[in-house]
Design goal:
single chain, mainly alpha, 20 helices, globular
């Protein structure tokens, strides 16, 4: 029953994340139509990336990977899980309030650190203004991450997965109102950022309170458990910081090409659909499951969870990666080409999307392998691996910038992602049975690869056949739907025929998920 519950968790989180990503497309299409890749768009993207960058540094790096296993252990053993959660909430709140104030004051320097190419033009002043308005989002969304960790430990995946849905709904409503009333779109977007944070925090706080976890700000107590959390979280925080340095390098490289920050951002949003749906689902569900199995000494169950997570990841991300590479231009054109968007924007964004697509399996598989380390409270080795990945990213991006321009940033992200996965895989070799994929995984792997390759060929042929319709304003949405449908039918048909997946397994998991 454990593998079924695991897959049910994957599907629950994945389906809600899919809903969020669909709404995210609607949000991004509205932004592209109103702002295109112009200076206001670039200024907002840099400003919004700052609190998100530090959110990953504080919340996702430290508390999702260090807090969740400790909290889950206290729940299982009947220790004071509530007191531990309250201390962690107070500690994180205290640090973030101070950090928010400092970051807001230092915004001119933070913008230069993120996009030095903005210096001396209108993008810089707008980015500083937008950044000061939106930076408080880090406080709200980091607390949301901690509360989501509490909910996930109780198996309440739906509530935590609804958080990004709220963000996209608030952004869509704000742009719709601003368009009707003639408000300044850049300022509207900037003020919407902290408003979404307040909405998300209120929702998750209420969900945790209904479980009996009323967490409030206050002066933290430096208990032995909180000290241990900080010791374990330290390397995870640093690892998260290394990942964000990679992002910073990419933004810096892009900022010296006008429009490139927007191109990379729009491409990133597209490839975040499969990355988010699969990666977030696996990362959210697999870590608590592995922590329970390893703590109970059940290595067979741990291996089963790990193998099914890797299988689920590749089953969805390999065909997604192929699709992002071979039909990058039709996807970009149909989704974004309206309003202020230009043909140059389509070409540049499609190139970046294809580059990101090549790294998609690596980034999702990282979410499968990392819990092997974090479930054992080993946060040091992932940090060391992240440092190596950072060096590779920076060296590739800066070294290749004179040769291929802004594309160096996108390709560097992909190359460093595969380097990181390789290190994690190599480092997990000595973890015993739980870290070795089972025979079913290896049996299905080559079948998934073959089905994805056949699908790629079909997509190329169908895209060529539909190319006139994909360029027609009125019919292009139907043509894109037909193109994507042809890929989906091909992949699942070939996959079923050669045994890449079990139709019975999918039906059982979907039926249980609905129940």
């Amino acid at each position: 029953m454990a593998p079924i519950r695991l897959m049910r968790g994957f599907l629950t989180v994945g389906l809600w994340t899919l809903a969020s990503r669909v709404l995210g497309f609607a949000r991004d299409m509205m932004m592209a139509a109103y702002l295109g890749s112009g200076p206001v768009a670039e200024a907002f993207f840099v400003a919004f990336s700052l609190p998100n960058m530090f959110r990953r540094f504080f919340a996702e790096g430290a508390f999702n990977m260090a807090f969740v296993p400790m909290f889950a252990k206290k729940l299982e053993t009947g220790e004071d899980a509530l007191g531990f959660a309250r201390d962690a909430f107070k500690g994180l709140t205290s640090v973030l309030v101070v950090f928010t104030l400092i970051g807001t004051l230092l915004m001119p320097w933070l913008v230069l650190a993120m996009a030095a190419g903005f210096a001396g033009d209108a993008r810089y002043d707008m980015a500083v203004l937008f950044g000061r308005i939106s930076f408080s989002y880090i406080l709200f969304i980091s607390l949301v991450a901690l509360l989501s960790g509490v909910l996930n430990a109780f198996g309440r995946f739906t509530e935590a997965s609804l958080v990004p849905v709220l963000l996209n709904l608030v952004f869509i409503a704000a742009m719709w109102i601003a368009g009707m009333l003639g408000w300044d779109m850049g300022l509207t977007l900037a003020w919407t950022v902290p408003i979404t944070g307040i909405v998300q925090l209120g929702f998750t706080w209420g969900a945790a309170r209904r479980l009996g976890y009323t967490l409030l700000p206050g002066w933290p107590r430096m208990t032995p458990e909180l000290k241990r959390l900080l010791i374990i979280a330290g390397p995870a925080v640093l690892a998260g910081g290394v990942v964000q340095i990679n992002l910073l390098v990419g933004r810096q490289v892009a900022s010296f090409t006008e429009g490139a920050v927007a191109w990379l951002t729009y491409a990133d949003r597209l490839y975040q659909l499969p990355l988010g749906v699969v990666g977030i689902a696996i990362g959210t569900v697999l870590l608590p499951a592995l922590s329970r199995h390893l703590r109970a000494g059940d290595h067979a169950a741990g291996r089963e969870s790990f193998s099914r997570g890797a299988e689920f990841a590749l089953f969805l991300t390999l065909p997604s990666a192929v699709a992002l590479v071979v039909i990058a231009t039709p996807l970009t054109s149909v989704l974004y080409d309206r309003g202020a968007w230009t043909p140059q924007d389509t070409t540049a964004t499609a190139l970046a999307l294809a580059a990101y697509g090549l790294g998609l399996p690596a980034f999702v598989l990282q979410k499968v392998v990392q819990p092997l380390f974090y479930a054992r409270e080993d946060t040091k080795r992932p940090f060391y691996y992240a440092v190596v990945s950072m060096v590779v990213n920076a060296g590739f991006a800066v070294g290749m910038m004179p040769v291929i321009g802004f594309m160096a940033a996108a390709l560097a992200t992909t190359v460093s992602g595969w380097v990181m996965l390789g290190q994690l895989w190599w480092g997990a070799r000595g973890m015993g049975e739980a870290a070795r994929p089972d025979a079913r995984f290896w049996s299905r792997l080559w079948r998934i690869v073959l089905a994805s390759a056949v699908m790629g060929v079909v997509l190329v042929l169908v895209a060529q056949w539909l190319s006139p319709v994909l360029a027609a304003r009125g019919a292009r949405w139907g043509a894109l739907a037909l193109l994507c449908g042809a890929g989906i039918v091909t992949y699942f048909s070939i996959g079923a025929a050669i045994g890449a997946y079990s139709l019975g397994d999918l039906k059982r998991n979907l039926r249980r998920n609905r129940g």
